[in-house]
Write a structure and sequence with these properties.
The protein is an alpha+beta fold. It has helices at 26-33, 37-93, 98-107, 112-121, 126-135, 140-145, 154-184, 190-205, 252-266, 310-328, 337-363, 368-394; strands spanning 2-3, 6-10, 15-19, 22-23, 211-214, 229-232, 239-245, 270-275, 288-291, 295-299.
Amino acid sequence: MATATSVDVNDSENRVEIHELTIHDDELVEFLSGFDEDRQGEAVERALKVGAATLRLAETSKDLEYVKREFGSMQEALESEIDEVQSDIEETFGDEGRVSRILERHFGDEGTLRKHIDDAFGEDGIFSDRLDEELGEDGERIQAALDPDVKGTPTYRLRRSLKEEFEAIKELLSEEEGRQQERRVSPGKGDDFEDVVEELLDGLCYGSAHTYRYTGEEAGELDRKAGDFVVDLGDTGQRIVIEAKSEGGYTEPRIREQMEAAMENRNADFGMFVSECEAYVPNKVGYLKEYDRQYLAVSLSQDEDDEIDPRLFQIGFNWATMRAAQVALDAGGDVDAEVIGSKVEEVSDSLDRFQTVKKKCTNIRKNADDIGEELNDIADEVNAHLNDVRAELSKAEG
């Protein structure tokens, strides 16, 4: 529905003024909402022009079709009447009568009246010629008026408008692709790496007594957001805090600063500093390095273009749970300190081997399958030793 105070059309100045026009139409609102405010006036003007041109063509086509139908009906009606009159006369006056000959001359197949009708309404008649003049032969003028390749036609303007919209969409897509590329090489990609760490945590905690939650947006004991994930160990009640990092520039003092703040902020017993790749941390940190038996630095790949190795995260997580269990239990009673010390030493040796072989795996791609199998064996060995330590520590729980 549309309302307007007044509409003034000035032919001499080629101007239309619509005062206080208000239109209530869902489709029009949706259409105009797709344009910026500074382009909505132009869009309204273009819509009015296209609508007016389309209505003019529609009315012209409708009128011409109506004329054709009326003339066709008139011709059919006249021919029908002629046939009926001729039939009646034939029955009354006979085939050879004078009246019959007159009728034949005027109303027969070659009669003057029928000829006049054909001249007026037939295929080559006056009206047909007139329609061809108005519409062009076979509707050429209407076809030309709707040809999208003819400049100035409504369909040409519509196609141009659609092309502009498509170009704008392509530009937006190009900008978005650029932003995605920027995220791949900037700290903003940290959100994606947090998703990777969460997926690894989910796999390790599923079916166990351990639980985890994302805390990267929550303030902790220090009223800060330090500490991206917190893992609560179901068997000992201890807590591990995890920092997930996917950018470079981390020195050992900075790693210590980050982890000490995260552990205090989340009231954790042990911590994990998880880096996306080894290239983001100092060389002496490597794939795995423990600091003061309080937190562990773990790198999940050698370079940012390499795939994440979940075995590194699994080893780091098991190491963290072992250290957290040690914090929870007194080294006494049924706990054999020598067994624990021996196993921890074996784990350290295995981790050294793991890092050495991991570097070989990265540098010698053609032998990756064989080295990968050795890594799996070492990872199983490390996890078995850690499980033995956990089992020994669990004796104190009773």
